Amino acid sequence: MKIGILGAGSIGSTLARKLAAAGHEVKVANSRGPETIEADILTTGATAVNASDVVQDVEVLITSIPLNGMPAVKPLVANLPTDAVVIDTSNYYPARDRHVQALEDGQVESLWITEQLGRPVAKAWNAILSGTFEAKGAPAGDPTRLAIPVAADRDADRETAMTLVEDTGFDAVDAGTLADSWRQQPGAPAYCTELRLQEMPAALAVAEKDVLPERRDKAMAAIGERVEAGDLLTVADLVALNRAIYR
């Protein structure tokens, strides 16, 4: 597929490497220009381009940017082919995203994003730690392979997102519609807890929407305390903490 990735942070950069390695034609852009894209992001064949070019002649656009940048992306998205699929990877954290207008704590941020962009999106790769995503992909059928939930309202969006999740080395799990995508947001049992294919559906099913903000904030506070104490938290530490609080 021809794929554009807007955002070259920890998730966007790994997406560029993994999807290019899987044989896709990948372009990646950020807000600062192609010359600022780190060389290691391009080692498997992705190309650095300007943001205005990342939406040209693509079948899929993946947005992996801070939420405050979403309204400004709408003019770019308007230039996408009408049949192109948009996949978003973002999450809402009030302390970080307090400047985001009209998005309230407890709101399904995927629905807010569709409003900002003016077209449907699929939600994927938001419920995995960047360190897990980078290091723990595995071939299909590998018993250690982890799962990633995918939510979307349109069948074509869901099918495309699930195919690309599989191409990045993870089992894709149908998590339902965007209205239900809160089940894979911070604070939910499926969020960044490194679950396998057989475990993910149950984790999505038992999520309780009302408790997500409290659990998310509790986890962030615990991480902050560990960091202030001088602890160097590993991916395993973060997964263990999330499992203890979210499940």
Biggest β-sheet description = 8 strands, mixed
Helical proportion, percent range: 25-40%
How much of the polypeptide forms β-strand, as a percent range?
Answer: 5-15%
Number of domains: 1
| Radius of gyration computed on alpha carbons | 17 Å
Tell me the number of helical segments per DSSP (H or I, 4 or more residues long): 9
Q: Which structural class best describes the helix and strand composition? A: alpha/beta
How many strands in all?
8
Strand order of the largest sheet: 3-2-1-4-5-6-7-8
What would the principal axes of the Cα set say about the shape?
globular
Give the N-to-C terminal Cα separation: 37 Å
Poorly predicted runs of 5 or more residues:
none
Any idea what the CATH architecture is? 3-Layer(aba) Sandwich
Characterize the structure shown.
The protein is α/β, with parallel strands linked by helices and 247 residues long. It has helices at 10-21, 70-77, 94-97, 109-117, 130-135, 155-167, 200-205, 212-228, 235-246, and strands spanning 2-6, 25-29, 47-48, 60-63, 85-88, 122-123, 147-152, 171-174. The chain has a single domain, classed as 3-Layer(aba) Sandwich (Rossmann fold). The protein is built from 9 helices and 8 strands. An 8-stranded mixed β-sheet has the order 3-2-1-4-5-6-7-8, with helices on one face. Helix 1 links the parallel strand 1 and strand 2. Helix 8 (212-228) runs antiparallel to helix 9. The N and C termini lie far apart (37 Å). The mean pLDDT is 94.
